[in-house]
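haha ok so turns out i had the wrong file open the whole time. this is the CORRECT one, sorry everyone. sequence first:
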Amino acid sequence: MSNPTETNAAQARTAAPPPPTAPRPPEWWRSARWRWGAAALLAAAACYAPFQLVPFHVFQLTMVLIYAVALLGLNLLVGHAGQISLGHGAFFAIGAYTAAILLEHWALPYPLTLPVAAGAAFLLGLAFGVPAMRLRGLYLALVTLAIAIFLVPLLKRFEDLTGGSMGLTLAKPAPPAWSGLAEDQWLYFLTLAVAVAAFLLCAGLLRSRVGRALHAIRDSEGAAEVMGVRLSVHKTLAFAWSAMFAGTAGCVYTWVIGFVSPDSFTVNLSITLLAGLVVGGLGSLSGPVLGGLFVMFVPSFAQDINDAAPGVIFGLLIIAVMYVAPTGLAGLAGRLIRKIPRKE
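then structure:
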């Protein structure tokens, strides 16, 4: 015989309305056709932009793409693997200096510097990823911060190779005659091609078993180990992949700027990149792009507001964005989309 109390409770649960749930994205947003259409529209806008903007603005967009590639690697490490790095700018510098040295001392063709710079950063990230097997949190942050700190004096020490404090000045890739493009447009399209390839590679990586293993480690290392994920291997590879994307961005940076010096890769670069990623949105493919926009434009905006203390303005802007969008700009955009009513 059933308990009357339990029967009444069951009837109450049946009669009660279902608990409120977060609004689902509208049907048009979830359709694959719309997503492909949005991607095609974005690609068309990206190809059309350099023909409508002045050279300086084209240069700014080029730098946004470079920072987006660098942040793509940092997002892989921090947003998807759950690790921390305060030395990402050092791997960016390794890629930049590898390309510069190959161009200056070995006269290597520009396209060949890209895989070499990416490979050098990958190997260095693999070596420095070993401490990630045993360190976590603040201890890991201090190790990665040390990388960014000692790199600048190290680059200044080998003057014959790196140019010392004066750096290296290089020629930029000249546009081929058949393209009919100006130099700034040619550099933009080179950077765009590298960025698209990097994003496709990262998206494929995250959809593979490696991506699922990184997400498992981020959510719970103990549970991931029980499921058979090799923590040491995937943590080390996360650092290596992250460094590879940073090195790729550094190589393209050398092409675009035509100059490298140790003072361009201080600790501030690593901190700015991490801040840009958090503002853009962790764990999202659109986060690095939004973070690249933040890294490129917000410091100069802060400088325009107050020449005496741009760092204060920069910090206040970060606080304001985090207050409005705790999950980053990508998360804010996602919440706005989910609020769009469904079409029944």
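The beta strands are 168-169, 259-260.
again sry for the mixup
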